[in-house]
Amino acid sequence: MTTPDRPRISLLGTSALLFEAPGAFDLPHQRRIWALAATASKWPDIREAIPGITNMMLTFETPPRELDALIAALNDGWDAAEGLAIGGREIRLPVTYGGEIGSSLQSVADHCGLSADDVVSIHAAPLYTVFALGSHPGYCYLGGMDPRITMPRRQTPLQRSAGGSVSIGGSQTGVSASPGPSGWHAIGHTSWTFFDSSWPTPAALTPGDTIRFVIERVIR
Amino acid sequence: MPIKLTDIARLAQILEKSGVDTIEIEEPGQSLKLVVDTGPRMAASAAPAAPAAPAAPAIDHSVIAKADVAGHFLAAHPWRDQPFVAQGQRIEAGTTVGLVKIGLLYAPIVAPAAGTVDAVIAETGATVGYGTPIVRIRPLS
Amino acid sequence: MIEILSVTGPASVQDLGRFDQYRFGVGTSGAMDDVALRAGNILLGNDENAAGIEIPMLPFKLRFDRNMAFALTGADVEAEISGRVIPPWWRSRARTGDVLTIKAMPRGARLYLTVGGGIDVPMVLGSRSTQFRGEFGGWHGRPLQVGDILPCAASTATIGELGVEPAEITLARPNTAADETIVRVVIAGEYDGFDAATQALFWSSSWKITPQSNRYGYRLQGPAVKPKAPIEKRSHGIVPGVIQIPPNGQPIIQMRDAQTSGGYPKIATVIGADLWRVGQARLGSRLRFEQTAYTDALAAEAEMSAYLDRLRTNVRLVEETRICRSS
Fold this sequence. Notes:
The complex is a heterotrimer of chains A (220), B (141) and C (327).
Chain A: E1 8-12, E2 16-20, H1 27-40, E3 46-51, E4 55-60, H2 68-80, E5 90-98, H3 105-112, H4 116-124, E6 128-133, E7 140-143, E8 158-161, E9 165-169, E10 172-175, E11 180-182, E12 185-189, E13 210-219
Parallel strand pairs in A: 5-13
Antiparallel strand pairs in A: 1-2, 2-4, 3-4, 5-12, 6-7, 6-13, 7-10, 8-11, 9-10, 9-12
Chain B: H1 5-18, E1 22-27, E2 30-35, E3 63-66, E4 71-74, E5 90-91, E6 96-102, E7 105-110, E8 115-120, E9 127-128, E10 133-139
Antiparallel strand pairs in B: 1-2, 3-10, 4-6, 4-9, 5-8, 6-7, 8-10
Chain C: E1 2-6, E2 12-14, H1 34-44, E3 52-55, E4 60-64, E5 68-74, E6 78-81, E7 84-86, E8 90-94, E9 99-104, E10 111-115, E11 149-150, E12 162-164, H2 167-170, E13 180-187, H3 196-204, E14 207-209, E15 217-221, E16 236-237, E17 242-244, E18 252-254, E19 261-262, E20 266-270, H4 275-279, E21 286-291, H5 294-326
Parallel strand pairs in C: 13-21
Antiparallel strand pairs in C: 1-4, 1-11, 2-3, 3-10, 4-9, 5-8, 5-10, 6-7, 6-9, 8-12, 13-20, 14-15, 14-21, 15-18, 16-19, 17-18, 17-20
Helix pairs in contact in C: 1-5
């Protein structure tokens, strides 16, 4: 289908395009995505270049008539991209694990063959990096989760999951900024404001910032 | 008010731009029909097609709802089975009695007075112009 | 100003949307039927991006607190203002104190009420659309409630009654059965992850729109469409129109309030020129997908622009004719 060491480029209708980098879900690849996004956002007819997890979406001001030139520019841009090291801030985020909001804590533990306490300590151990913003206003995708607590996304997404949910989806983790539908598994919650439309920059965190989860409580 | 030459020039311009080929204006004491020449065509008939059985009363007090733009008459909205009005229906002044389709638009034809619908004169799909009679209304006396 | 007297379901203030805030996780919001919102604004001589009210359920009732022009576009409608019936896709005038009662929506799924000058709520992050998830924009970031009094921008236009042919008629797609909506789609990144038989099933099926369909997404029901092997993507940006296939094999079309990113495999994307058709498709009705090439999707967008141009020209023509006669 694709050559594993080349990027994948696919259409999202006529309003956007998706660039997926080859290689691992890790910080060096993500830094190259940040660099590519910084470059691509200045190209003509591009509205935004939005980093995802080792991928990037370009939205069009005007959709290109021909895609070949844009595809070539993306491939060249990726090859040329030096990792962009963003020296972000470190945020300490108190988390209550388990309980009503974090009700999937036990099912994640069961799925991974661990105890709930193991899941909590494994989840709270790393210093996470904000890889990307997306999903809903102010939501941060975090890199650095220990693969031992990986759990596939839900078969059918939940219609409503609480704001402040700390959840796991596949090999990723994140904290929801507001209530809404979700295909992830919530293992805890935090009360923190991630987004305010009246702030000059509406999102509290930006790619390159780091988060340390502090275990406030574990409800078993 | 007499129709001025400048009005005619303006109307002709509008016709040309809109792709509408005919416009008719009737006012007391005068009438005007503008036809944009778009090649060979049948001669426009001088008299409006009279209803088959006029049977007009000796003294006709009826009022006529007329089209005020050129286009095609619609008795019903295309999303409706029922026409706007039917014979014998009581209506108020200002009631919409039909539509003139002009390009993508529907201009309403409104009843000038309250009364009872005597007849819907125009047929759906017919080309109408400014002043074309659409519905005859017997006013409340 | 207009005062909401009765509201059913999540009616909201929407303009065309908020298109350049993805990098903060902010989706587009905006009218589910952008064609109807534009048509209403064109009828009123407004900027096409002026905010209106999107009404998904009836009854709905409001009072005008001053003389103003308004238009109803989108779904078919049974509506009345001070005893006068308002036909569908229609502009009219209200006097101070008039109550507009909207009783039923015989076809279509969303009605748009636009007013001369537009609903004058503050611009937030470049748009007046309600961002439900972020609870901002529109009217206090929430659905409208009884008693809400919405400010309307001043408009000096004095205009008469006028209708537009519903877009569903003008822009009808050939071979569309009653109660079925056909939309054109461009295939997306994971299309090749489905085998030929499954791809054929996706195209041939008449998908049922489930009751769990709303501004976030349309959840469809039909034969399970599953990839050759499970696909779990790293989270990436998505836009309204993207059709995701979650593991249960039942497609979800992302709509205006969709999340800005996702990880389920994407089989196709509804083209921008047809997304309004999804917005007007009723719960319980059927939906079918028709494959189209990127260049044809661009051509469809050009056709949509031409349609809107024609609508603008037509409205100008009728106004000029009326002015000409009355001068």
